[in-house]
Amino acid sequence: RGKDFRGISLGYIFCALVVLIAAPIEQRVMGYEVSSLQQLLAGALLLVGGGLGYASYRALGRNFRVFAAPRRSGSLVTTGVYSLIRHPMYIAVIALIGGYGLLFASLIAVPFWLGLTILYIVKAVKEERLLAAKYEDYNAYCERTWRFIPYIW
Questions:
Q1: Other Cβ atoms within 10 Å of 144 Cβ, number
Q2: Which of 32, 93, 101, 132 is the most buried (most CB within 10 A)?
Q3: How far is the C-alpha of 19 from the C-alpha of 13, rounded, in Å?
Q4: pLDDT tens track of the chain, all 153 residues?
Q5: d(CA 125, CA 121)
Q6: Residue 85 phi, psi dihedral angles, 5° rounding
Q7: CA 119, CA 18: separation in Å to the nearest integer?
Q8: Considering only CA atoms, which of 62, 78, 72 is closest in space to residue 140?
Q9: Within its chain, how far is the Cα of 112 from the centroid?
Q10: What is the residue-wise DSSP string for the chain?
């Protein structure tokens, strides 16, 4: 199980680190001006990402883990934010990294943010196979929830 996700995990960690390190350096070196609107949008993404991440963590409780595979003694969480979205923690990270890159007006951040987003999508699809194999009611849960964004996807 772990080998299937190792490359994905290393990939999105690498992408996130590049954005976190390169964005402020790029902004400082290039002297980009960040408009008030851009700061507002970045702040909104950071707040949404942080709030969604916290809500996800709270809803998972003892089921929270960094690894994609479910806990052996865990249970399927379908309450809180998980009653609408199956992967809110992934959306939280995508929003946080996107907001951070936007806050610094970083062009370097864009391809790495896109890479991170694609890797989280791939991870979610693979993780859902594991969850469906562990929890018999997972497919029914999938039918009544959105994978990432309610009413969109």
A1: 9
A2: 101
A3: 10
A4: 556 788 898 999 999 999 999 999 999 999 989 999 999 999 999 999 999 999 999 999 888 877 666 777 788 999 999 999 999 999 999 999 999 999 999 999 999 999 999 999 999 999 999 899 989 999 999 999 999 998 886
A5: 6
A6: -125, 135
A7: 15
A8: 78
A9: 14
A10: -HHHHHHHHHHHHHHHHHHHHHHHHHHHHHT----HHHHHHHHHHHHHHHHHHHHHHHHHGGG--SSSSPPTT-----SGGGGTBS-HHHHHHHHHHHHHHHHTT-STHHHHHHHHHHHHHHHHHHHHHHHHHH-TTHHHHHHHSBSSSTTT-
Residue type, 107: L
Tokens of 146: 């959105």
Provide the token pair at 152. 């969109």
State the residue for tokens 């890159």.
101
